[in-house]
Amino acid sequence: MENPFDDTYFMKKALQEAELAYEKGEIPVGAVIVIQDRIIARGHNLTELLNDVTAHAEMQAITAASNFLGGKFLHNCTLYVTLEPCQMCAGALYWSQIPKIIYAARDEQRGCIVMDTTLHPKTTMTGGLLAEEASALLKRFFIEKRNLN
Amino acid sequence: MENPFDDTYFMKKALQEAELAYEKGEIPVGAVIVIQDRIIARGHNLTELLNDVTAHAEMQAITAASNFLGGKFLHNCTLYVTLEPCQMCAGALYWSQIPKIIYAARDEQRGCIVMDTTLHPKTTMTGGLLAEEASALLKRFFIEKRNLN
After folding, report:
1. Which one of A16, A53, A105, B4 is least enclosed by Cβ atoms within 10 Å?
2. Where's the active site on this chain (chains A, B) (predicted)?
């Protein structure tokens, strides 16, 4: 039997988080952190509601996962996030020593790749999974935002 | 009359925060955020106590300052921090658009300068103020830590 808990399954869960952000008028980015096929943390962007630039989806998921694990290192964990992490989030992931980051859409302007943020040597990052779905939601958000203003 | 509220005054307040971290067994780093000669946020490193890599002094100070101001941008603010910010903190400061960062000691290993983190175009960063005091506290911490293990 196929394992239903594959990367696509978990990225869909991250997309559900992004939709929650969208419904709250936030830039729609969502994240989940997984260990042994189990989601231990969820987060979605709340920077506007909390008036706090640090409230990115990944930051909240990192804090929640550490809380669940009872330790600050996210060894053996995978982060699924709908948008390539920014410098801040990639910097936090560096400290967490998380081994695996999977993102959906690229962020060509403010993402950690174009910003050349240093990842932890233990970390691998791949992108593009469900990128179209993640980008479509982001585009929808920005088009509606523009039409409202 | 001289203004008693100069950069040295506020860096001493950041050092007091670093001492609070030291007393709790944390890597001693402290920060304050100032607007119009008034401290609106304080923070000290709590990564061990909170089991959370995101709990750096600056991150807590950014959240507290935004909370005080009721907005996520730290325009017209100055951050005083006893150690050069890391990638994560510099990335958060980027989003905050804070105009001024003053740090004490350099972090040659993990600081944002060696890591080449991008600061916001509106931000200037200077270092070296009370650097010896800040470094001495960090050295004391690491020597004691080594002797305990």
Report:
1. B4
2. 58
